[in-house]
Design a protein that fits this description.
Order of helices and strands: HHHHHHHHEHEEHE
Number of strands: 4
Largest sheet: 4 strands, antiparallel
Structural class: alpha+beta
Strand content: 5-15%
Helix content: 55-70%
Strand order of the largest sheet: 2-3-1-4
Distance between the termini: 28 Å
Radius of gyration: 24 Å
Length: about 290
């Protein structure tokens, strides 16, 4: 159980598989960009509700100067993309450039297609679509916001503030300017939109069907493990541990289960050992093994 295993064979992808991988990634980036453009032009821009970062800054400048929004986002992002060339992976830079370039086109495609003037609907649905689009882009190793690149670069170089703290300062500046230009009520709606979008981004990045990791402490580990494998058709792992007070060796039963199957797993364990101790944690992504994403 704890011995050495032979190294798995190295899987070499064929040219066809590599092409399909690239095609699917750029297709996902394109879909994410178009969803983002729809959120901007169909909800946020017509109602002077803005996003944070480069896009938010571009929206303010575009509103005041009447300069094309898509082109403005592209121009502002270019210096950050050039900065990223020297600091980040080439694939990330290329995919970011592609995403920003397509956004410049897509915003013009959706221009003047306003869905609603209701600020509450604008905030909620604009935030949802914005978060969905940006989340898809981030999940596929791309970006639309140069301030993220700048924040990561400053953190690597000086380490004075975290990336999150620097982004918060930048967005605070952007929303303050928005309040001065559009009024403080629009600025507050913008902050709420950003909050909704950030929560949706988290959902997209982490997956909609979060899994649970379960550690079960019970002397009846064999019976519990067998029942879990039989009743839920998932694999378990037995791990050695030692009691802090008793100093006795214990066997911990470990498994990963979907949140939908968690109640059934609890029933299975409690039926065998009502005094079993559980430790349940969040797992956002699982690859390989016998786990089935139900």
């Amino acid at each position: 159980m704890f011995g050495r295993h032979a190294k798995p064979p190295v899987v070499v992808k064929t040219k066809k598989q590599i092409f399909i991988d690239y095609f699917m990634r750029y297709l996902a980036l394109t879909i994410g960009v178009f969803i983002t453009a729809a959120a901007l032009e169909c909800f946020l821009v017509p109602n002077n509700v803005i996003d944070g970062g480069v896009i938010g800054l571009a929206m303010i400048i575009s509103s005041v100067t009447k300069f094309n929004l898509g082109l403005l986002i592209f121009i502002i992002d270019i210096p950050f993309i050039i900065l990223a060339l020297h600091k980040f992976q080439k694939s990330f830079v290329i995919q970011t450039f592609y995403s920003v370039a397509v956004l410049a086109f897509a915003t013009n495609l959706f221009h003047s297609h306003n869905f609603t003037h209701d600020l509450l609907l604008t905030t909620v649905f604009g935030g949802i679509f914005l978060g969905l689009g940006v989340g898809i882009i981030l999940r596929n190793n791309g970006s639309l916001d140069g301030t993220e690149i700048l924040s990561m670069w400053l953190f690597q170089k000086y380490k004075l503030f975290s990336v999150g703290q620097m982004l918060m300062c930048i967005n605070l500046f952007v929303y303050t300017v928005a309040g001065l230009v559009f009024g403080w009520d629009k600025a507050m709606y913008s902050v709420l939109t950003y909050f909704i979008a950030s929560r949706v981004i988290d959902m997209v990045m982490e997956g909609f069907n979060k899994m649970k990791s379960v550690r079960i402490f019970s002397p009846y580990y064999k019976e519990i493990g067998s029942a879990i494998m039989q009743e839920l058709d998932i694999s378990v792992t037995y791990m050695r541990g030692m009691g802090g007070y008793s100093r006795e060796e214990k066997i911990i039963t470990y498994c990963i289960v979907s949140r939908f199957d968690l109640p059934k797993l609890k029933d299975v364990v409690i039926n065998i050992d009502p005094s079993a101790f559980f430790a349940i944690g969040e797992v956002f992504e699982v690859h390989g093994g016998r786990f089935k994403n139900k």
